[in-house]
Amino acid sequence: MTSRGLRFLIAESEPPKAREERRDSVGRSSGDTYLDILAHLAPGAACDRIRPADADSDLQSGGTISDYDAVFLTGSPLALYDETSEVRRAVAFMRATFTSGTPAFGSCAGLQLATVAAGGTVRPNRSGPEAGFARRITATDAGRTHPMLAGRPAAYDAPSIHTDEVVTLPTDAVLLASNRATVVQAAEIRHENGVFWGVQYHPEIGLDEVGGALRRQASSLVESGLARTCAAVEEQAVLIDAFHREPQRRDLAWRLGLDDQVSDSEKRQIEIRNFINALLTHGRSLRP
């Protein structure tokens, strides 16, 4: 089956300031990153973008969420437990996505947004930021047979940087993967008419974006005790940048403690590819 003819909606929840800081840092916003990855994984699919946290956010086509085959929710610095207008707008958008029956995939804040919209809870990470890479993510019994994680080994690492975590999953949600730092690393959420597959980590980003994220959050990483100085954060970011340019270098893989689950982009992006394949094979329900 082919992705040609599919219509995807990218929901970029970064507030304007965060979008520009990310573009200044790595040359693209979270929405730009998803546009790039979907062009690669689903050639021929049409992609639109919406910024649900913004006050003036509307679908450019004048259509509805139901007009799309899937919604992709990006990462964002929004704290979903804060009662701000940006958070209320983003949550309302996700609730409308569930109501529409349009399947959705999300990473990092995308998982948190779907959780809150469906009745679950989010809080600051109890153990501090999970920064750079999530280590030894392990599938649950349900996750070992779930199609989103098909092709992942028993334990794997993934790009990750987040300061919040899911505390309570909604009713009719299934926990798919965990690690020692963050209990909810992957989940499926079914709510009202819709289904959401999501991960706390970032299968969509390149290693250059990991380095950029560390640089943007250097001060908070020092405050949390993950680094002694901002210079130490920069040293780590330089190593990651070098690994991005030369992912075949065994010395950098050894120094960073990473394998091909991170260095190989095809393996790193597997959850998004599995979601698209499920959509092509099974339609909006994502069920066989």
UniProtKB/TrEMBL annotation:
Top-tier EC class: hydrolase
Keyword Nucleotidyltransferase set for record: no
Keyword Hydrolase included in the entry's annotation: yes
Annotated EC: 3.4.-.-
Database matches in InterPro entries: ChyE-like, Class_I_gatase-like, GATASE
PROSITE patterns: GATASE_TYPE_1
One Pfam family linked to the record: GATase
UniProtKB keywords: Glutamine amidotransferase, Hydrolase
GO molecular function, one term: hydrolase activity
Ranges for domain Glutamine amidotransferase: 61-211
Protein name: Type 1 glutamine amidotransferase
Organism: Methylobacterium marchantiae
